[in-house]
DNA sequence: CACTCCGTCACC
DNA sequence: GGTGACGGAGTG
């Protein structure tokens, strides 16, 4: 702690144009972020304290604009970088969601949470802004003062918003979009659209009925959920079954709204349970609770984690399981990882992983938690967020979700709407992988992750399929809060974004994602303290951590981190260097030895 | 009151 | 004009 820390520079995509604003942030010594900085003192080749100091001097108080040429980074998302030298920045281990998003975690949160993955291009509501300052900034950017506020839309694949609705037959698509109106949250609405194989769109059951005209009996078809009643009943039974089982093994702890999003309640008749895909996939989960295998931790450790005390938790995902998950959706993987790091209640986690439906939160709870369909737009995991995210989904993220009804919101947020990468990918990917029994999961300390809402819909991202194995180390000093922590989707977005340029993995919020053939890996610096902190823990555990640390350090020594190049094009403007990377892909692309940090260079 | 449906508006 | 989203009337 006494050693000099590199100053964190945060690149935040806080405008609709995708402009990135780099700025230094003051970190409290004990904050999670500052820990991240502390634990990443060695920022790569050429990095040294002197340089860092210089950089601080040169950049202190400055706010540089960086033209982001990629839309991969969600609005509000931030990439933390350490100032290594006057012209070099290194991605910090922690990347967080925009403050706005965080703030929304306790509020409506539709901005992030709702945003469907990739749908930062939707109409905006008053609640999309955290504060007046931000509001003003955006108001000046576009459009006069229209009755409706719109968010610049980033081109995304059309399919991102549309989910297959096999219930109606091949080729049918369905989309659920939460409205981001400025009316009272309780009055929030969502629209469900269907697109026939021919491309005809229907926005009501009436229209659908007319279109089908006898071809298909949709009298028992639930327009909102996209399922036929008999299927819903079946799912309900499965969920009930799981719930009973999990209740007997889980401990009581308050769950987070975000997590709840993944589970829909059947208590509300007529309310959508899940999107077609979600519904279709969760059944699999229910039957095969585990998607991710975590290394087991001593019960006492888990307890400490739950209480929020500093502790190191290593969660290793089975390569095969990850592979199956990652192969179809990287966001899913991230989501799982991120979620697993959260101090979720065993019960909820279990429920989530098993596809069970935790007791649905009350509407007030949802509102308080800031849930809001990402969108409905982003439709959106996580939301995805995580915005059920809707962002149309999408965007679940967040936390800002606000479902008209808990059930619907949850559905949407869990991926229903997200334009997100999502939902389908999530479901298809991990949910169906062979899984250990529920007891095994519990014993291993696994924590299910939840899909995001509209985040899903709103966040919709195209996820590369490069990740197969993921190892996550939870930094003891970074205690993610289920509500305030950045939605997994955002983390994944950031990772994706950075990978697009660096081709490597980075550490997000203290979690490191790796591509890997290595069964176990860990972030290095961040783990040092963790190991020490947990030294009093069971020897086997500490030893293991130490081994991981050692191995990681060795890897770090062997490899140099890749760099993302930013070119200075103006007085204080920077442009991503035409996607130029200052590294050789072969050096760390598939070697399995992923650098801990991705460097970002600012070339003047 | 919650939900459905659809007219209408705004943007591209 | 197409699409997405909002507002509000209609319905149970």
Describe the structure.
- There is one protein chain.
- This protein has 604 residues and is an alpha+beta fold.
- The protein has a domain at 1-94 and 560-604.
- The chain contains 23 helices and 21 strands.
- It is globular.
- The two termini are 32 Å apart.
- The structure holds a DNA duplex (12 and 12 nucleotides).
The total count of helices amounts to 23
Give the overall shape. Answer: globular
| Chain oligomer state | single chain
Distance between the termini: 32 Å
The helical percent reads 25-40%
Biased composition (Acidic residues): 124-136
InterPro entries: DNA-bd_dom_sf (IPR016177), Methyl_CpG_DNA-bd (IPR001739)
Keywords: DNA-binding, Nucleus, Transcription, Transcription regulation
Biased composition (Polar residues): 265-284, 377-461
Summarize the structure.
This protein is α+β, with helices and mostly antiparallel strands.
Topology overview:
Blueprint: E1 8-13, E2 19-24, H1 32-38, H2 49-59, E3 63-67, E4 78-85, E5 88-91, H3 99-104, H4 110-113, E6 123-124, H5 132-141, E7 149-150, H6 158-161, E8 163-164, E9 173-178, E10 190-195, E11 201-202, H7 205-212, E12 221-222, E13 227-228, H8 229-249, H9 257-261, H10 276-287, H11 299-307, E14 313-316, H12 319-328, H13 330-341, H14 346-354, H15 363-369, E15 396-397, H16 406-416, H17 422-431, H18 438-444, H19 455-459, E16 471-474, H20 488-502, E17 507-508, E18 511-512, H21 525-533, H22 539-558, E19 563-568, E20 573-581, H23 585-588, E21 599-603
Parallel strand pairs: 3-20, 19-21
Antiparallel strand pairs: 1-2, 1-4, 2-3, 4-5, 5-21, 6-7, 8-9, 9-10, 10-11, 12-13, 14-16, 17-18, 19-20
Helix pairs in contact: 8-10, 8-14, 10-17, 12-13, 12-17, 13-17, 13-20, 21-22
The chain binds a DNA duplex (12 and 12 nucleotides) through helix 7.
